[in-house]
Amino acid sequence: MNKRILRLAIPNILSNLSIPLLSSVDTIVVGHLDNAAYLGAIAVGSMIFNFLYMGMGFLRMGTTGLTAQANGSKNEEETILVLGRAISVALASAVIFLLAQVLIASVSFAIVKGSAEVELFASEYFFIRIWAAPATLSLYAFHGWFLGMQNAKYPLYLSLFVNIANIIFNLVFIYQFGMASDGVALGTVIAQYLGLLLAIFLFLYKYKYYLKHIIVKKIIELQPLKKFFQINLDILIRTLALIFAFSFFTAKSAEFGEHILAANTILINLWMIIAYGVDGFAYAAESLVGNFIGAKDNQKLRKVIRYSFYWGLGMAAVLSLIYWIGSDHIVKLFTNNKAVILIGLQFYTWTIFAPLINSFCFIWDGIYIGATATKPMRNSLLFSTLIVFLPTFYLTNDIIGNHSLWLAMTLFMVARGAALFIYSKKYIYRW
To answer: 147 and 242: one domain?
Structure first.
């Protein structure tokens, strides 16, 4: 069981680490151009796509659980039909994005205020990168399906290929063709479509025989399609609640002043690193839990849940130790502003304990996705946001200042893990 978990977790951890690498290279390259507005344009444009694509994250998560269960029950027809439905929804959503691109841009730039120059370059970036939507969303479906098939190597290959290609195209367009933020957008578009071609090639290389079960009529059958949309609607609501909590955290940080905003941004980025690591084991849980549920193997289901927590908490303990030992050096790595460093260290204790606290809800998320038990995921996020996170902040804000944000965020994570644990008897261990 440990080997099966690690075989899935390690490629996912490596895949996750390639994401901040691309972001860092883009920032470094554009940040060295002669106009700072280009960097602002990348930041604003990327934020718009983060909102769009985070909301569509259900295409990966929902597909993983459904695929793993169909594969575990040896139902080859349903296994490939899940991929067919996911790609159909991905392409339909991409068409909507393309048709509504002017409206999306208008609303986004009305909400996010920047200088005229930043808005000009960000608009240019947006209207180029939006054409990657069909490839980007289809890749979500392929990632989820490959993982549901207990194949973590293909998502790793795709992530590394797309991100490395993206970096190469960005460097070529900027340094060889004299482009700027528009070159970054174009590089992203080309890399995404090349990634989609690689995904299709990998699918045909290993899973071509599944195509004999493809029946277009069955892809659009009402009952399985209804289940697909219900699962994904729950995940969408859950994701929007999560986005709201982190956006609220950033907005309120800004109200405390630019130095606290900068310090909080650094520390919350360290929280994101926790997710990159522990999510590798959460992804492994998604695939294996779904597989054992499909196979109706309750003994292995309980075992993989137990072992996933062992590995997730083990990695969390290592991260907590690194954060504790390297506190000064880690904060200084992000900034040389003395005021920001002092404030960051003042609130750093919340970050030391975060890995051990947060890992519980991350692993539970993976377990519930594998079980396609998305209703309790949705409810736990709504409860944690509306009943725990917001009241905690407003009740303590006047008393402890910025600590109230960190207390609210910590209790938010505790509530997520606790709620999913309470729900587990009914939704997970019922198989």
So the answer is: no
Across the range 422-428, mean pLDDT stands at 92
What local confidence, expressed as pLDDT, does residue 25 receive? 65
Q: Report how far Cα 397 is from the mean position of its chain's Cα atoms.
A: 29
Tell me the two tokens of residue 94: 């991409």
More confident residue, 318 or 331: 318
The size of the chain, in residues, is 431
Instruction: Please tell me the total count of domains within the chain.
Output: 2
Q: What are phi and psi of 313, to 5 degrees?
A: -70, -30
pTM: 0.82
Q: How far apart are CA 267 and CA 67, in angstroms?
A: 36
Cα of 6 vs its chain's centroid, Å: 20
Domain range spanning residue 64? 1-220
With contact defined as beta carbons under 8 Å apart, do 187 and 173 qualify?
yes
Query: Residue 398 has which token pair?
Result: 């006047």
Question: Given 3-state DSSP classes, what are the helix, strand and coil percentages for the chain, each rounded to the nearest 5?
Answer: 90, 0, 10
DSSP string of 168-224, one letter each residue = HHHHHHHHTT---HHHHHHHHHHHHHHHHHHHHHHHHHHHGGGGGG--HHHHT-HHH
Of the candidates 130, 152, 136, 143, which has an alpha carbon nearest to the alpha carbon of residue 194? 136
The confidence score (pLDDT) of residue 51 equals 79
Fill in the DSSP letter of residue 402.
T
The DSSP line for 108-129 is: HHHHS---HHHHHHHHHHHHHH
* Phi, psi for residue 145 in degrees, rounded to 5: -70, -45
Summarize the confidence of residues 139-167 as an average pLDDT: 93
Please check whether residues 26 and 140 belong to one and the same domain: yes
Domain shared by 186 and 283, yes or no? no
Among 220, 255, 284, the domain boundary falls at 220
Domain end position, chosen among 191, 220, 249: 220
pLDDT digits (tens, 9 = 90+) for 390-421: 999 999 999 999 999 999 999 999 999 999 99
Does 338 lie in the same domain as 214?
Answer: no
- Per-residue confidence (pLDDT) for residue 179, from 0 to 100: 87
Residue 14 has pLDDT above 90, yes or no: no
